[in-house]
Amino acid sequence: MEAAAGPPVPRGRPQAVRLRRRRSVLYGADRGAAAQPGAGAAGGTSALTALAVAVRVLNCALVRSSFVPDEYWQALERLRGSAYPLLLAAIYKALQLLGKDDVQLLIWVPRLVQAVLAAFADVKLYLLARHLENAETAKYVYFCQLCSWFTWYSCTRTLTNTMETLLTIFALYYYPMKGSKTGSSCKYLTLIALAIVIRPTAAIPWIPLVFSHFLREQRKADLILHNCIPVGLVTLGISLITDRVFFGEWVLVQLNFLKFNVLQNLGTFYGSHPWHWYLTQGLPIILGTHLPFFIHGCVLAPKRYRIFLMAVIWTVLVYSTLSHKEFRFIYPVLPFCMFFCGFSLKHLKAWKKSAASFLLVSNLLPALYTGLIHQRGTLDVMSHVQELCKDSNQSQAFVFIMMPCHSTPFYSHVHCPLKMRFLQCPPDLTGNESYIDEADVFYSNPLGWLNKEFHNDTLLPSHLIFFSVLEQEISSFLALKGYEKTATIFHTHVPQGRVGSHIYLYRRGLK
After folding, report:
1. Could you give the CA distance from residue 497 to residue 500 in angstroms, rounded to a whole number?
2. Which of 169, 265, 283, 476 has the CB geometry, 3.0–4.6 Å to 121, for a possible disulfide?
3. pTM
């Protein structure tokens, strides 16, 4: 064949041959994946998500203990938005419409939903580390997140703190960090706003992050006018409308929350701690054996991650100014800490496998103990109460829970019109310095209170539930009124104060 005609080639020095770059879907995809860690790895992400869901579902099944009353209560208070209770209510309604509103499904389906959301958050944390660093660092961040004992203990519980933490992770994925390819001002601000609607304290760790973003942003006016104001107005409007429907009147729960916990400091009604508690106990305990890796990671991490450390320090300092302190309040900073822990593990050389094994074993033991053994009695006793719903004499049953208020769940774990009562402990909102709640009055003189409250035998409950520490003090009342012990339920190895090691269930015999 005759060669195609072309431009004449001058004689002399040989010319360099130019090859036209061809676009190939196959090789282009490979090159892109190599240039951008994790790009085109949808299959790997799917497998990671499946693993995370499986781990968190198992996590959910292996957490059968109680943590704090807020896990089952506080839905009717006007200190937090109705958004999260509405999510649970939607699950209940769906089960009812499907004809599957069995008490066990009502207990476990909300927790399984929470577990799946926690799994997605785990994957988002992994993807964030992969985008900011590389796949190896992301792998160790993910490992640290999965084996954190406190995350295991908390992430499948129906707590607003849990949802606050998950939304913090989702928002962090879209936070416009330097070098991040997933940054989106609108998305991360929307997620923060949603978290604040659910729990106003969600704003605390984001104050230094948003401020840092504002300082770095070149188009500050656009950030405020096109993102902050629209997102703020829309979420505030949705919050006001849903709370109006939920509470029956216009309520700004975020303002109520601020008044109750900060301005009036009424949180001290539920206990107070010294200012240094989060520094000396709170943060070290929830970090556990991750603590040295967290410190090591803070030292090694590049300067651009100092804003994450600043968020942790700021949050701990702000919460330290409040008298009432709890471990769960600083749970939202734990994902930030896991990022530094993963960074530490990645840069270990000779001891990498040993350190990972140490973290896994040292976290597995407290995770299983706190999830399966410690403080499980207040949930186990509800299965005995559920049996009363099947009794032919259900209409005559009356269960009185004589324990520190809100120690057990209530109708969410019974799901039948069983008459029940518990000791009340509402905080005083009138400023009465001599105010004493019903639970404190009861515990000041249990025997006298019972004799006065149930002076007529027709008023007596059919069943009494109380901690073992109370039995000796009210034994004469139990004997006189014909109560017999029908169940002994283990609760904890470390009883203290009004909380005993076991829970007793007494039933009044028929005369």
Report:
1. 8
2. 169
3. 0.88
